[in-house]
């Protein structure tokens, strides 16, 4: 482990302590929250610049391909996200091991519509496979969802595979009739694949079909 003189949070960690988990429709048994995640060795906090050495990227590789990201690349991206002020990458650390075991990102998108309002997008949700089934997925998603509301977002949405719709529905997200299609065009594949993929994948019979679910906040 590299020794750091000072660690930097991506955003102010104090904002997580005031989130009211009773506002979420999620059922926690036993009740847990970002401030009190149920075990003294669990910590819910913003990403830190030192998390390169706590297995953050290895955790993300359980979600999708990460690639060979160097420390410099990680720190550059961290600085860009922090400077923008719109990225709220949030993690769960097992402090016994100094390891990141859960993560979710809230990205705040600035709009002209709705009186120059902001909306949230939930991305890159993952829990380490040896820690799944212990409410940590719910904990990290509810944390960033409440954070979106706290930051003034008028809604939050996400794209997910069909099999996860039920999971997100228990956390308050809904499929909006006639308006929940997820469409994609990829630029990282060969041209033939690009043509095939530039289409809605709703209705595909594969379990990889993707839909958009949204969480509306009362104004
Ligand atoms: C917007 C996005 O990023 S979508 C991508 C989501 N991430 C992934 O698919 C990565 C791989 N999967 C994971 O990391 C995890 O399985 C997660 C994050 C989906 C869930 O994490 P967990 O810690 O296991 O969730 P948690 O213990 O809080 O489970 C909550 C509930 O969802 C259910 N659930 C969890 N994972 C799944 C799943 N893959 N499919 C269906 N149901 C699920 C659980 O059974 C549980 O139900 P219960 O409350 O009735 O018992």
Automatic annotation (TrEMBL):
Keyword Acetylation: no
Top-level lineage group: Eukaryota
Signal peptide interval: none
Recorded catalytic activity of this chain's protein: D-glucosamine 6-phosphate + acetyl-CoA = N-acetyl-D-glucosamine 6-phosphate + CoA + H(+)
Listed EC numbers: 2.3.1.4
Keyword set, alphabetical order: Acyltransferase, Transferase
Protein's GO biological process: UDP-N-acetylglucosamine biosynthetic process
CDD domains xref list: NAT_SF (cd04301)
Gene3D superfamilies linked to this entry: 3.40.630.30
UniProt enzyme class: transferase
Residue stretches making up the N-acetyltransferase domain: 42-197
Family per similarity comment: Belongs to the acetyltransferase family. GNA1 subfamily.
Annotated pathway: Nucleotide-sugar biosynthesis; UDP-N-acetyl-alpha-D-glucosamine biosynthesis; N-acetyl-alpha-D-glucosamine 1-phosphate from alpha-D-glucosamine 6-phosphate (route I): step 1/2
Coiled coil (residue ranges): none
Transmembrane segments: none
Any GO molecular function: glucosamine 6-phosphate N-acetyltransferase activity
Protein name: Glucosamine 6-phosphate N-acetyltransferase
Organism whose genome encodes this protein: Drosophila grimshawi (Hawaiian fruit fly)
